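ok here's 8-oxo-dGTP diphosphatase, seq below lol
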Amino acid sequence: MTERIVVVGAAVLHGGRLLAARRSAPAELAGRWELPGGKVEPGEAPEGALVRELREELGVESQALARVPGEFPLKAPYTLHVWTARLVPGSPDPEPLQDHDELRWLTPDELWDVEWLDQDVAAVMEVARGPWGDGAPDD
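and the structure came out like this:
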């Protein structure tokens, strides 16, 4: 049996909006939108991986808040776990971007105005069911 590899995604909430990141690489994912995140390294807690990935990918400091209910299957052997997160006050604006070419803060009415990666659709739907607006303080 192949061991599953956990990938973490961040539902970064701020002022009633959700942060979406448009992939620039690899080519087969370019132009599609995702919840930022990445793989959990061996021996790393998923919440720690989330904070590390947001620092590496977006150059921001964050705090993982609560796990979004559910496990979202990806292409085997990967599985996606999503946490709500907030940016730490005083964190720089996200950039330079590593695997993304655009970031967008989406209101609940704008959630489906972007083309999400297939594997993120169920996670975004679950996040949309939760409360909005308390994920990060306004600076």
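fwiw Residues 133-139 have pLDDT under 50 and may be disordered. kinda neat tbh
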